[in-house]
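It would be a great kindness if you could assist me with a short task in structural biology. A protein sequence and the structure tokens that stand for its backbone fold form the material at issue. I should value your view on which stretches of the chain appear to form regular backbone elements. The record follows directly beneath this note.
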Amino acid sequence: MNIGIVTRKNESQFGGDLVALKSIGEGFNELGFRVFYGPTSEAVIKSDFIFLSNSCTDLRREASYLSSRNKRWGIIGFHEDFSKYYGDSIGFATYVQLMVDNQDIEGEYATLSKLLSSPKIYTFLNQKIPPTAFLNYNVLKDAKVCVANSNTEKGTMLKDCPSANVIVAPLAPGITEGDVAYSDEFLRLTGLDKGSYVLQIGRLEIRKNQLASILAMRDIDKPLVFIATKGYQSFYDNIVFKTIKKYRKYPTYIISEEHASYTEGNLKIIQMPNGQRLSNSCILSAYQNAGLHLHPAFWETPGYTYLEASRLGIPSVASSWGGFKDYCTLEGNSEDLNGLIKYVSPYDITGIESAIRELFGLKFEPIQHPIFTRTGKDMASEILQHIQ
């Protein structure tokens, strides 16, 4: 049997979904299947079983095409709970933009002190849920199988389509799968010292919530480092830069795939070598040498950076919104991995700051946990039971 995996069209905007799909595809290869992988191609469409992906994008056209040709198909979801996070993420970013631009709202200025004292003051700026969240009801219903990577994601899929056939196949632990040797590669790239910095990895994007990280770190005398691959919200990049310049008192680094290197005050942008994504070895080195991993995202399913940092024993301040807790609690383990994780609400600046101060620099051994022994082959094997 040939397997086709249809990825999203904007593959240049790298993300965890692409990592997961590649891992699943390699798993099917190991099981003896031929796998065709990409946004669209004749080989993908002619496969015996085809997976569409990213079920919060409009998949109606692709699903209709496959059904009209009697193809067997399913969905690998990365299904986001828009009703949980979308309005809040937009409202929070909008309020911070008003703060940095010194704009008033009905005669009253947006200020940091108001945000700190009333963490959900921004909710009147929330926007409506985009219609794509509701367009795929029949797509989910008609798919032979819908693959979620956590019980939280499964619940979101079933909330959006109660009759969907949803299974759970947890992800393998990203680039930390297998043995990982120590490296100082990232220190040589940045000039930073081992254990000195707070690290956040991900596109500059409203959902990933770098703004909360900046505001929570405003008075903490540690370098804040963002590793940011190419995004699609350039307006958000500008808000991030302005927020750093206005509120951060200490050095902030952005290791960027698309912005040229420059330094302005406490902001230092370092363009990735040759404008290409950092190698896996360099990213692993960034984790290994960090004093803390920080990622107060409004939503992740589950967020590879949590898995990767935890696998290496790097303490994390993690969002309580999303599916990561489901991974931690597998086989009766604690949701905080015995003190390695502090969960925070993505809009709670004071809570995020307290968690950073509590966890920074604590030493943990690499975590022994069932999730970190998973492989792409495991995922493919579990999915295969439902498509043969």
